[in-house]
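Handout, section 4.2: multi-component inputs.
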Amino acid sequence: MRRIEIAKVLAQPALDDTITVMGWVRAFRGNRFIALNDGSTPHTLQIVLDAEKIDETIIKKIKFHACLSITGQLVASQGAGQAVEILAESIEVLGECNPEDGYMMQPKVQTMEFLRTNAHFRMRTNTFSSVFRLRHAIAFAVHKFYNDRGFFYIHTPIITGSDAEGAGEMFHVTTLDTNSPPRLEDGSVDYTQDFFGKATNLTVSGQLQGEIAALALGKIYTFGPTFRAENSNTPRHLAEFWMIEPEVAFNDIVDNMDLAEEFTKYLINYCLENHLADLELLDKRLAEEQNALPKDKRRAMGLIEQLRFVVDNAFERITYTEAVEILMKSKPYKEKKFEFPVEWGSDLQSEHERYLVEKEFKKPVIVRNYPKEIKAFYMRLNDDDKTVAAMDVLFPGIGEVIGGSQREDRHDLLVERIKAIGIAEEELWWYLQLRKFGGAPHAGFGLGFERMVQFITGMSNIRDVIAFPRTPGNAEF
Amino acid sequence: MRRIEIAKVLAQPALDDTITVMGWVRAFRGNRFIALNDGSTPHTLQIVLDAEKIDETIIKKIKFHACLSITGQLVASQGAGQAVEILAESIEVLGECNPEDGYMMQPKVQTMEFLRTNAHFRMRTNTFSSVFRLRHAIAFAVHKFYNDRGFFYIHTPIITGSDAEGAGEMFHVTTLDTNSPPRLEDGSVDYTQDFFGKATNLTVSGQLQGEIAALALGKIYTFGPTFRAENSNTPRHLAEFWMIEPEVAFNDIVDNMDLAEEFTKYLINYCLENHLADLELLDKRLAEEQNALPKDKRRAMGLIEQLRFVVDNAFERITYTEAVEILMKSKPYKEKKFEFPVEWGSDLQSEHERYLVEKEFKKPVIVRNYPKEIKAFYMRLNDDDKTVAAMDVLFPGIGEVIGGSQREDRHDLLVERIKAIGIAEEELWWYLQLRKFGGAPHAGFGLGFERMVQFITGMSNIRDVIAFPRTPGNAEF
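Output:
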């Protein structure tokens, strides 16, 4: 008999039909009621078992996370809590799951750290199966958003010969024998013998290559893995994470802000409209986590409440200069509670961003027009000659989710900037040529995918929104 | 004035409106007719220019691939070849493009190799803009196909600590100083001081981690970059390419074949239904390329003809044993024209696969149940104890596009296989535990994305279907 997925059984119950379902045991109560889940939905299907009909040796194997195939009649449930249930006629054990054989998962709340070290089973928990269904939904919404608007998805290279992207420390990629690499006469490693004939790294951003595509196809986006070899062991950093980078020919910084706001709201709305049951489960989880905290450490809003608040309100848009002014008038500034200095020319620190978002405006904030000295070389110089058309989108709780800019499209100004920061022109020959031949104004940004998944799922550690996190000292699985 | 994209202008022409368009010059005839393209469509928009209205210095800058902003009235075209055109009232040059400044692209057919070395401009050509719009369409169709069917998209790790995947040579990832890495007492490199505390590589497949997700969420797929450090300088190989790997709990090898056939047909149909203009352009290109070949080297069908043929016919399904029998009865075998031996136990070579697909069946062929010795350790042993439930999907012209299998879900048999091929059990501790605790039958496959893009676009070199190809000696851009 062909099995039916539990999501379908619950959505369109064919009452009185005899059906087969397969899945993992989430609970088994009183030797009679199995809660079965097959991953297709956060809900479980109740199976009612008549101990006289089912062999005792099988009943003994019905344990937490054992995998079963069950055939029986689907009927309206007699009990509260579910609309339908299956009266089991036969049960087959597809995969046993015995604590005495060493199974480490238990039907109780286990620490996040424990679940991370057992990432091969954590997706079987309520929390993580919801997180990863939502992660899928957000990824799909990314593609749908851009496809519906005529953007083209570009795969930018993962291995790059350029180290001019300037966004942080990079991982080195090589096929040379690390123990005894070929060497030049001066003793240095001979990278001409490496796979690509030169030293290569893992990309930190697909932006520069994305600009190539935008200046031909008009509107493009990337969605791929990016890497930072930084020794940041924090709940906000991963060595390997996914980034979405739209790039649009003919857009200026205002179009860019509009796109960022429309895009992030769309992702949130998509989840609210299509995955509310998963969000409700995570909303409850977060509320319990918050209840364990002292009152002054708790979030101002519940998960779903905050998501609705963000989509229902316009993002605040201010300049960097205005941000500095607001901060200088703030209570924590006057009371010297900020750890880092506030002064025109210094970058905004996390504590400053949080003040703006969580205290001053109580909603997402887009800060634009930063001092050129603290931003990347490719950002377009404003007419004041002091600031660049950069923008950061700051979200409550997680801080910066988006960084972007209008790009410097004037060849000579870009050459000047590159020289000033000491990058060789040859390194960026093609990037400069894009300005020399058929260039156009254009703008884009990068959204840290995991940050967005964190915001939507309410998970406080970024390691809990990616299936197999890569962090300093950890490349397990 | 807000610009309108050319795709929209052509699809819903608001006749007599004054509008602004922006894009790149594809042609400029008789100082009067500009063919403008902005990437949103393969079609160009005709701009009619009245030399008396437009400044001469501007007209001089209207060159191949220069970027223009044009405002004017949209009217029904007087000429043949287009329905509408714009009567230019003003023209702004956004980006000049002068051959005398070194612009290398020319309005004539240029070699593929030349365009590869100028990949930062090749997307501005008819051929490549169509290829990359189709690449986007196929990628979107992948996500839509799986999302519509309740699969969840999983990001499997790019950096992996495991080298047990066994699919070929790997790239090494490190942050150690290659010139003088830290060493142990015995002189070997001390990888405990590397970023992840051990030696790491770039993934060759997300399958093993995908199985983790499938055994919790039921139906999943991956779509990410994979890597092969093989010195294969051929039109069929890339060092960095994208792969799609669905994995489904409770599926057997027959379900797996059904999924592979439904999936590949869906991708082709999606392009036929949504991007016919791009396909028509590439169909014409291919026909011209074919005409330059001697008759016996030409394809049997045109591009679109072949795409329709593939979606309209059931794939042939045979066993490996049947394939060998067919080959042994074949003319080239009898005439000793095959380079490689045909005998039960040897892997099928490209020449054999091509015979089956192009001569014997003249359509896609799925070969299954290969000898266990020539297939990967994780494939499920059949009851004959000689073959495994493996399958390859072979396509006309490009050969293998899909390789997959039902996975060995029996713990003890898997341990036996791992030992037999010399992998340490500890290497795969979590993979083995998936069989020990709540395991289930499951199956999946990998589709080489670029191979599929090749098939749909008719491009003969795989380097021409990825924006920035990575091959031995080449990591430019």
